[in-house]
User: Which sequence fits this backbone?
């Protein structure tokens, strides 16, 4: 069975994608910082009959990233690496004049540096896979200027560029930066706690990601909305 590493997988989009892959028979290595919630997620996914390894930790920790790849190799390799773990930089979000520089550093460390570190750790296994794939979860804030989203958006824009260059440097892989659009997630609630408007559930975005895996278009940046509309 193919093997996927998914960061930020205890809930939200990471959990929804993990469930969809488990239903397809994928083996999974899951990461999140909350050990209790991650354990519950893993236990639920095991009901699909797949092997699920849950490793709580922080993706900014070099040893944790190594452990994720080591566990995936033990399951058979790394066919898919999904960088979904994210940090906002400030909770709730604030204007750039108020953004703590330590918060910006944290967003860059989680969203960019750790994502590249995990790719570098997994790259030999990805190259050896029949269809090695990297997915980085982007945001419309990476391409549009929204007030208070500057630090987070800058980190996602940097991640988009890393994904684009990786796709050019690794033509044997597929590297997709995916903008999932608005979703009802804990991350959004922490970013804008006063916004109680209705938003799609993360599971509604998963068919877009599955379409990429099924059709394997060229490496690049894709919007979930466009992928869903084209179905």
Assistant:
């Amino acid at each position: 069975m193919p093997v996927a590493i998914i960061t930020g997988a205890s809930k939200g989009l990471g959990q929804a994608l993990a469930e969809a892959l488990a239903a397809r028979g994928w083996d999974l290595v899951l990461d999140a910082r909350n050990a209790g919630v991650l354990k519950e997620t893993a236990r639920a996914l095991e009901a699909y009959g797949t092997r699920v390894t849950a490793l709580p930790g922080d993706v900014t920790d070099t040893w944790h990233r190594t452990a994720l790849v080591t566990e995936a190799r033990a399951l058979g390799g790394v066919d898919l690496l999904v960088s979904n773990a994210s940090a906002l930089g400030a909770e709730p979000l604030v204007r750039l004049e108020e953004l703590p520089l330590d918060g910006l550093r944290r967003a860059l460390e989680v969203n960019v540096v750790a994502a590249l570190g995990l790719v570098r750790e997994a790259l030999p296994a990805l190259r050896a896979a029949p269809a090695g794939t990297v997915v980085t979860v982007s945001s419309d804030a990476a391409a549009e200027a929204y007030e208070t989203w500057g630090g987070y958006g800058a980190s996602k824009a940097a991640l988009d560029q890393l994904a684009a260059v990786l796709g050019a440097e690794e033509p044997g892989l597929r590297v997709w930066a995916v903008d999932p659009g608005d979703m009802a997630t804990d991350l959004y609630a922490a970013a804008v706690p006063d916004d109680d408007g209705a938003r799609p559930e993360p599971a509604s975005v998963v068919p877009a990601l599955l379409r990429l895996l099924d059709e394997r278009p060229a490496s690049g940046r894709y919007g979930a909305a466009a992928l869903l509309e084209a179905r």
